[in-house]
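Researcher: I'd like a candidate sequence for this fold, 412 residues long. If you have to choose between options at a position, lean toward the conservative one.
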């Protein structure tokens, strides 16, 4: 018993490291094309609008595909699906480097979307089943931070490769590296395998699936509320991560370059908050309270950015604290989803609710673009703050619905 207990931390570290590396890869490959858009635009003779459409196709395929990927993960196991997703991302990147015309970029977007859709169902299936429950929230937080680091690494890496080679070879080399990494992950199947006999796979604190149909499972109130939660949070996060450089010069006395730096500050602060949030979430079952406290603060600060003139240092501090408070809620967010997930359905549920992130990522640019085009940048901040407040409401309703479901199961 003692040897088995002492081996658990080592096994957890190995599993968390593998899943974190896979999540790093997924976020990295999400951003391999945008840094090269100016070069791709000139090379293929396309417009930025066309490139934006290709990215929209990517997110649409990814969002729809996540639901199907969740079923594949539960049926065939994450140890098979995860390396396949990484390989598809690598293949799509190579095809982008070989693209003779714009139509190939649409094919690339579809293949990449199919690759991207597997990560959240597979990653959370592995972590939920294989990581010791007392460390699970920290595993979720490291998973989040790994993805953020992938976003940060992609632009630097691709621009460096573009300087050394050219944009086509930069993409081909990056894609080949992705396929090599996929082959490595495939060799780690023993650590990624999820089977019914796993000691943590059937957590008694979670509702039983019983004979519920797929529709009953996915459209149960707590699960739908989780989907709404993810969509609203994605609207706010996408707005801050993607549009802060465009928005801040309109509402604060700040240049585009400084606003771009503020975006980096936001991402770093969010990653730091997520790490700390993992420790907090492992020490409480009241995850909705962490979400409520963090997002109320983030919402107020987001409004302040849009409506109160701030000194430069104060504006940066406001961005940093807003990012930190948003990040600190993310592990609790994932623990709330876990509490609403029947045992044996982790892939399906996480695949469904995480598709809300893709929906939010599609909706936010349209709305914020309209605010910018209409000269109402401050309304974009109000829009993002409202999304954060709506997220809080969804979090408390998820907790309430999960408790009601548990009571019904107990009384049967």
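Model: Candidate sequence:
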């Amino acid at each position: 018993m003692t040897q088995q207990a002492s081996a658990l931390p080592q096994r957890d570290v190995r599993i968390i490291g593998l899943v974190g590396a896979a999540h790093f890869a997924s976020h990295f490959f999400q951003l391999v094309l945008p840094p090269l858009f100016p070069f791709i635009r000139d090379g293929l003779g396309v417009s930025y609008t066309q490139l934006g459409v290709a990215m929209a196709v990517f997110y649409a395929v990814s969002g729809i595909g996540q639901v199907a990927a969740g079923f594949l993960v539960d049926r065939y196991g994450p140890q098979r699906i995860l390396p396949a997703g990484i390989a598809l991302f690598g293949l799509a990147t190579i095809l982008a480097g070989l693209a003779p015309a714009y139509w190939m970029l649409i094919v690339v977007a579809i293949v990449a979307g199919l690759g991207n859709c597997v990560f959240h169902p597979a990653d959370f299936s592995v972590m939920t089943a294989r990581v010791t429950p007392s460390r699970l929230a920290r595993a979720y937080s490291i998973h989040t931070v790994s993805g953020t680091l992938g976003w940060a690494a992609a632009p630097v890496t691709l621009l460096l490769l573009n300087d050394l080679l050219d944009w086509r070879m930069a993409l081909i080399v990056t894609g080949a590296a992705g396929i090599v990494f996929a082959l490595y992950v495939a060799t780690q199947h023993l650590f990624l395998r999820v089977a019914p006999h796993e000691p943590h796979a059937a957590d008694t604190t979670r509702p039983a699936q019983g004979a519920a149909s797929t529709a009953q499972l996915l459209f149960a109130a707590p699960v739908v509320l989780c989907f709404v939660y993810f969509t609203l949070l994605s609207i706010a996060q996408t707005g801050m991560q993607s549009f802060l450089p465009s928005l801040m010069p309109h509402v604060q006395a700040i240049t585009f370059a400084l606003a771009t730096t503020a975006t980096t500050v936001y991402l770093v602060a969010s990653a730091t908050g997520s790490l700390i949030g993992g420790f907090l979430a492992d020490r409480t079952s009241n995850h909705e309270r962490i979400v409520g406290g963090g997002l109320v603060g983030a919402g107020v600060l987001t409004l302040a950015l849009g409506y109160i003139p701030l000194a430069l240092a104060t504006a940066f501090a406001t961005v940093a604290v807003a990012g930190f408070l948003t990040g600190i809620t993310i592990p609790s967010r994932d623990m709330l989803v876990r509490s609403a997930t029947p045992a044996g359905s982790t892939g399906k549920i996480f695949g469904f609710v995480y598709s809300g992130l893709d929906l939010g990522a599609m909706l936010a640019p349209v709305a914020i673009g309209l605010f910018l085009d209409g000269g109402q940048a401050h309304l974009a901040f109000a829009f993002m703050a409202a999304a954060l407040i709506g997220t809080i409401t969804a979090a408390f309703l998820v907790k309430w619905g999960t408790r009601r479901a548990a009571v019904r199961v107990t009384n049967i």
